[in-house]
Amino acid sequence: MSWGFLRDLLSGVNKYSTAIGRIWVAVVFLFRLLVYIVAAENIWKYEHDEFECNAKQPGCENVCFDHFFPISHIRLWALQLIVVSTPSLLVVFHVAYRENREKHHNQKLYKSPGKIDGGLLCTYLISLTLKTGFEVVFLVLFYKLYNGFEVPPLVKCDVRPCPNTVDCYISKPTEKMIFLRFLVATSCLCIVLNLSELSYLLFK
Amino acid sequence: MDWGALHTILGGVNKHSTSIGKIWLTVLFIFRIMILVVAAERVWGDEQDDFVCNTLQPGCKNVCYDHFFPISHIRLWALQLIFVSTPALLVAMHVAYRRHEKKRQFRKGDQKCEYKDIEEIRKQRFHIEGSLWWTYTSSIFFRLVFEAVFMYAFYFMYDGFRMPRLMKCNAWPCPNTVDCFVSRPTEKTVFTIFMIAVSSICILLNVAELCYLLTKFFLRRSKKAANQKQHPNHENKEETKQNEMNELISDSCQNTVIGFSS
Fold first, then answer.
1. pTM of this prediction?
2. Which residue does chain A place closest to B45, by CA atoms?
3. Which is the most buried residue in A99, A166, B200, B230, by most CB within 10 A?
């Protein structure tokens, strides 16, 4: 999957950020996007193939996998990365709007289109609030969908057509759990960075 | 997007490094990242598919694999490389911050600011001294710490650096004790030893760079102290000479890092 667009977006956003904003971009880029692409994606690559149930009943494995993983961890992670990076676009659009206005009126309306003051400050604060909100929503979603941030090695499944209760084994549960916890840690770090940037801008 | 992006970022940082730092960067890219991408990923590609246990019990293979490989070698190396590359960004951020401050001074029309235009600030060389020296030295220190931590974690998790051919597993639901066979154990051992060796070389390079910086620092200080004693009011030509030496130590650049220049 090509994540180049996200990299370009983050680089563009970096220009109009505060110092804490730049640290946020670096954290998202290095500890979330890069880790996702070079490490995490491969762990979940064959999750369905390697999911094994102790039954010969056709369809039982499929049904149990679907029951325990309505949406795969890795897809939720990817969605989170995209959704959390997007509010920064608001700032980029606002700056572009300002520059357009200046060009249209052919005079200098702002001290500098990229300076965070007035309307742009409002947009910036909104984008920070949205980013934080989305992070929290996804963390709660992860927690609710997967009963905490655990990946058990064995799950007991009794969905039709599985006969009675069947043992199903998840592949690489420990590795998945390690990366899931890593995801949670970096999410929390990003939430902390966003909140500090918010308070820095509000009390400046 | 893959390791190429990291390469772009670190390439920018390269311009701030000492010569030992540049060697470290080359070793990192050629002997670690490239080897990881080109060779090691292939070797570990089929690790779970070809991990075979001598039993028909469903789930036994999954459980045994998880028991012996809590986190795959490949993923551990990828994480190690990411963590080890990160401290270099501290230096890039510091330089960008200094440049930003100079530009702010220039815009305010500060008399102290001796630059004629913004372009000159962009091209200006920053010496590795003062707070930048501390940032640079701490980044090397953190690199060392991360390298050591990951190497220890590796040793601790896999009981040494050898990959055995056969592992005996008796985790539930495996019946009694079951023989499990790892795929390509010798090839994996070879690559593991290679990566560990290159890690050690990187640690040595970092230690050497640290000693180099400390030696320069103390030499500069003693020369300054000697100068003060001999010529307390003398125009500091010695310092200009020292600055030239520092310029040899650090090249600076117009663009630091993609996205970090303002």
1. 0.78
2. A42
3. A166
